[in-house]
Every structure is written in C-alpha cells, then in structure tokens.
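Customer escalation, tier 2.

The customer says the design service returned an amino acid string that "doesn't look like it belongs to this structure." They asked us to rerun it and document both sides in this ticket. The original structure tokens are below, unchanged.
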C-alpha cells in the first residue's frame, strides 16, 4: 500500500490512541423516537435505528471517538477506512462498538477496492458506506450475511439506479458543494429532484455544503430523508486534524474553497474541494500544470515520525503532523462559512437538530 495513503488512517490512529484509553462505554441514546419531522426522515431513522436524520460523512482520518460521539448524540457517525490495514479496521470497529451501542458506518472509496470489508464485518460493523462505485454482488452478499446495512454515495440518476438495483439501504446524493473528494459533476440541486422521482421508499440523503439545522430543514423540505455532514464534523473537537486546519475552518468563507485536482498525489486526477492555501495558489499561478511540472514538487511539507509527505499529496495535516502544515491539503466544503467555532461532535448533532426543528438550545 502507498505509504502516504496509509498514513491518512495512521494519523487518525495516533491521534485517537490517547482519547480511547480508559474510556468507558457511553450510554446508548439512539433508542426511542422523539423526532418531530414526520414522513421520510422518520422512516429513515427508524430503518437505521438512529434518533435524528443527521449522518456524519465517513471522512478519512476520523476516529472511533468521533463516530461514537455522533452516534451517541443520536446521529450516525462514520469512519473512512479505505486506506487502513486490516488490523486497524478491526481495532477501530471494536473500539467504536465499545464506545457506543448505536449504529455507525465504515466507509470505503471503491476506487481503492474494499479489501478489508470482511474484517470490518467480522468485527461487527453495523453499516457500510460506499462511494465512487457500486459494491459487487459478493460484497453485498457478505454484508447481508453479517446482518449489516449499506449506503451508497451517488451523484446522478444513473448512479441512483445502480444503488437501487444493488439494494442499498439508503442513498446519499453528493454534489460539488462538498468538501473532500468529489465524485459529482455538478450541484446536488441539479440531480436531487430527478433522483427522488425514482428512489421511492429508499431513504435519500443530501451531501455537500450542509452545515447547520437550517440546511437540514431545507433539504428535508426538498424531499430528502436527511443530511450528510462532512466538513461540519471535520471542524469538531474530536476530529484529530491540526489546529491550523481547524483555525482555517473557523475563519474561511465559501469563496476561500477551491474545487481542484491540485492535491492528487496518491489519487491521480481525483477532484476535491479544499481551502485555498500557498501550495494551491502557487500551482494556479504557474498554470495549474500536471504532475512533473508543478512548482515545489517533491518538497517535504509534513512529517509524522519517519513518514514524509510531499507537497501535492492528498494527505491533510493532523494534530500529530509537523512541518509546513498550512501548505498541505485542507478539505472543506461550501458550508465552511457557517462554522464559527470548534464544538464537540455531540453538541454539533444536537445543535443541528434543535435548529432544524426550531427548538431553543
Ligand atoms: C476532511 C474530509 C475528508 C473526507 N474523506 C472522505 C473519505 O475518506 N471517503 C469518502 O467517501 N468521502 C470523504 N469525504 C467526503 C464526504 O464523504 C462527503 O461527501 C462530504 O464531506 C459532504 O460535504 P460537506 O463536507 O460539505 O459536508 C471527506 C470530506 C472531508 C471534509
């Protein structure tokens, strides 16, 4: 496995090791309803066994601590594990299960396969979330045999058709508003209405640019069953990103983000949305050229122990990263402008819900 990709998960492991130690299981809060939005969101939360139609995106570098905090607060937490070795997948699933009895998702970017899916299921992963592709019949059979559920991120009507044919338990429609890697060719607004025409009873969520309760209310009023929040939880206390990255999250506007292929080291040509930074600006000024012709290529901009990360690598800066962290990828979606402080993930879930249903905090 490419060392730089692997480190996307190792950074999370290092950062979460201390928080995991000695923590006791937190009570399950995802039981009984009390949701105030009838119809599709209620059907979705009932199907998944959660309390609120608030899903944390399976962001790379996320930890058991973050996923469990979201799930314990009544949302559905998640951990992106595409680049993690098998033992880490087992450890993370078990650690999350020790912190919450509520459902959480393990995420796979199918461009990189899902070799550790059997390990995740064996360790008891309750939900699997796929992006950038459709799982094979064999993988789906494995998920069903384990009694788990699965969701699929799509961006078009054809993608939604494939998800329905695969029997996905829910669909998540991603748009280019999203932070991180983007499979969408346009806004989710361009595709959602036509996707909703065909999804019927299969819960359909929106991902991209959502930050608060008003955003959730808006997508539900458009016919969605709930919302997926990535950037918002990347700006949580539990997400182990570097303080510089979190500071940029608080101080950035939507126009401070860029949809680009600049940081494609480790995933050539993959589109992503990041905060503008010196690496991006220098690359754009030099004509946005491809690999081999980019300014400062080969510079080491970050290290974790003996691991070194070159400029243009997809690896973001974690709390354990040292170096020119401001030059590394900082993933953020268009919803970044609404983030004013770094809260705990549980407070974020409750705040989004309170605002969505009009409750005072
Ligand atoms: C920091 C960060 C890391 C991400 N990592 C992954 C990942 O590993 N796998 C994946 O499928 N999507 C990843 N995404 C994209 C999310 O799945 C989701 O589509 C996106 O966060 C939704 O848009 P939002 O960030 O505006 O809420 C990431 C997003 C962010 C912000």
């Amino acid at each position: 496995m490419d060392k730089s990709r692997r480190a996307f998960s190792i950074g999370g492991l290092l950062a979460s090791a201390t928080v995991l130690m000695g923590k006791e299981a937190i009570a399950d809060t995802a039981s009984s309803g009390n949701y105030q939005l009838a119809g599709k969101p209620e059907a979705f939360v009932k199907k998944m066994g959660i309390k609120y139609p608030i899903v944390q995106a399976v962001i790379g570098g996320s930890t058991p601590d973050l996923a469990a905090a979201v799930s314990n607060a009544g949302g559905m937490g998640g951990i992106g594990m595409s680049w993690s070795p098998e033992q880490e997948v087992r450890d993370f699933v078990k650690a999350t299960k020790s912190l919450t009895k509520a459902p959480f998702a393990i995420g796979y970017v199918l461009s990189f396969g899902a070799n550790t899916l059997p390990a995740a299921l064996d360790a008891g992963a309750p939900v699997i979330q796929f992006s950038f592709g459709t799982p094979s019949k064999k993988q789906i059979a494995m998920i069903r045999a384990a009694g788990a559920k699965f969701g699929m991120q799509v961006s078009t009507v054809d993608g939604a058709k494939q998800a329905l044919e695969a029997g996905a338990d829910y669909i998540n429609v991603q748009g280019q508003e999203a932070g991180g890697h983007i499979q969408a060719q346009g806004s989710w607004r361009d595709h959602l209405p036509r996707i909703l025409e065909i999804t019927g009873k299969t819960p359909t969520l929106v991902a991209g640019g959502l930050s608060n309760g008003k955003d959730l209310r808006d997508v539900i009023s458009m016919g969605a069953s709930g919302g997926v929040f990535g950037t918002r939880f990347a700006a949580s206390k539990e997400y182990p990103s570097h303080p510089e990255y979190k500071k940029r999250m608080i101080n950035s506007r939507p126009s401070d983000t860029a949809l680009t292929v600049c940081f494609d080291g480790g995933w050539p040509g993959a589109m992503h949305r990041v905060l503008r930074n010196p690496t991006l600006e220098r690359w754009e000024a030099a004509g946005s050229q491809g690999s081999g012709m980019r300014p400062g290529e080969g510079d080491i901009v970050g290290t974790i122990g003996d691991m070194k990360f070159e400029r243009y690598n997809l690896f973001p800066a974690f709390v354990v990263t040292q170096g020119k962290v401001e030059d590394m990828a900082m993933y953020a979606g268009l919803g970044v402008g609404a983030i004013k402080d770094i809260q705990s993930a549980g407070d974020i879930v409750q705040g989004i819900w309170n605002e969505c249903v009009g409750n005072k905090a």
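Tier 2 assessment: The sequence is consistent with the input. The chain is about 35% helix and 15% strand. The CA atoms of residues 185 and 342 lie 30 Å apart. Sent an explanation to the customer and offered a walkthrough call.
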